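Narrative of activities, Objective 1.

The group set out to show that a structural description can be obtained from nothing but a protein's sequence at a throughput compatible with the screening campaign. Below is one input-output pair from the validation batch, recorded exactly as produced.
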Amino acid sequence: MKKYTYTILAFLLCWTTACKKLDTLPPSIVKDDDVFATAAGIQAYMSRLYSELPIEDFRYSPERGLNMFWIISPTSATTGEALSRDQNGSMQENTGLSTWGDCYRVIRDANYFAETLPKYASNFTNDQVNNWLGEARFVRAATYFALVKRYGGVPLVDKVLNYPEQSIEELKIPRSSEEKIYDFIGTDLDYAYTNLPETNQAGRASKYAAAGFKSRAMLYAGTVAKYNQISLVDGSGNRLCGIPAAKAVTYFKAAYDAAALLDGKYSLYKKAWAAGDKNAQYLNYVNMFFDASSPENIFVRQYHYPESVHGYDAYNVPRQLMGANGYSSEVNPTLDFVELFDGIPKNADGTIKTTTGGKYDLYTNTMDLFTNAEPRLRATVVLPGDVMKGVSIEIRRGIYTGPSAGGISPLLPAGSTAHYPTDNIVQSANASQTPYKLPNGTTMNPAGLSGYFTGDGTCSVSGFSIRKYIVPDKPTSEVLENRADQTWIELRYAEVLLNRAEAAVELNALGQSDKSYLQDAFTQINQIRERAGADLLTGTANLTIDVVRKERKKELGFENKQYWDMRRWRVADKEQNSTIYRTLMPFYSANDNKYFFDARLDERNSRYTFDVRWYYEQIPQGEIQKSQNLIQNPGY
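Output recorded for this entry:
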């Protein structure tokens, strides 16, 4: 038996996905007998595999990559979901990241496990062996998905490669077609589905996690087949970038069928939900992200202080709730995102209505504008004046002191990205504000405690803050870097329903009439909309792919899904074509004792543009230099 020395690194084990739950061994250097002869050794190996699984969670950003603790460039700030207080993000991943090499190390580890475990099968039951092999194939499939969605076709390595058993030339494996990689992922996930148990420890894959991941991967393949316009073919005729359009139906059907396997196994979270009760629906949606017993959670990555942590709260709470680290408001939802939701007063073009007859509408409280908004919005975004952790979040752009008889005209022309004038507007450069004395004798901070400070980078730059995933009861003293430990929900049932609905609508559009796909999509979307407190669809006549995509953006906002959705739909270059995203700035009118809102373009003039070549990322030049068999993607 060939011996293979395996190092279990201490720092990896301390932040594994479930280092507390998986009962890992102390860090040590061991051989095959020590790892594969006991269940405890296999637990340690599995712990390592899951800890390195390339999923985009709290510790991911396109700039810094995977498993980076200091995330101040969130994915949402590259997609139009949000603005970053510090940076104008690009949807191109940093080409200097180690994603390629890191993924192939995980693939090698999974391959080694799958080849070595059978030699020790007599030590375990058949179910144990099959379950573990299923997990290895799940990890390998998820890792290949991380590669193919970035690079297209990549070298397909399904066994352990060793030098000198294989020559240098044999190790220089060329890229497979993009289609072949997706088919390989599907096969691995089918194997995992067959061999995995129905339930598993939190942080580890079950058969339904495999099915859910397959619905995601096959949907991605189907949309690439349908919408991609980039092609790269090698000398043997393998299409490295792009999938034949004729395969779209095959992949959409595979996505739909995989999603349907979860019927009756999971359900949308509705523990605190009540029909017609907006507050209960709002609280239900907030609670969903913190309830370990949620029937919606399919696959999660666990954190636990102090062994494994992240800094989500410290970077994203409104300024008035920030801890001693001095970070806050990194994620600032855009007005473009907020306008997706039902129940907000809107103009005929779908933009928010803030004026009547050319004059600002006035409100007693800033929350009055959102009185009828669907509860899912409040649970996702901190609206100006809403309550978080027991305090009202004060977000203002300034105090208007000018005349208001006959109404207040817009402060700036439509389409302007200029800063607001100083005449008739009291503004604040930073959080150390000089209170302004109002006509009624009371005082008010111009920007509020979390508003827009013109010279301070710790404030809301959009008029909103983020609520989703912020722990509702975490004390301010614990809102620190590397102190957060809420669980990341990588796959939940709502996404599976959305995958199913999208695949169904695409199949219907492609002329597939053997099933009532459109009616099924209608059912899935209305399940999600009902839980969200949104208006239900009334029929299938207007159920288009745009309706499904809009629902997906709302439901999965700030879960690092829109970044990949925009790429697979091939819409990023259209949505980001020197685009400036929009903000909503609340002002207090001193003479009226009321608020008005100014909807406008980001006054920082942050423009977003997407280069079409970024749909396929640059293969690291170091890898190209190692092997002449690797062909670089177009445009690099």
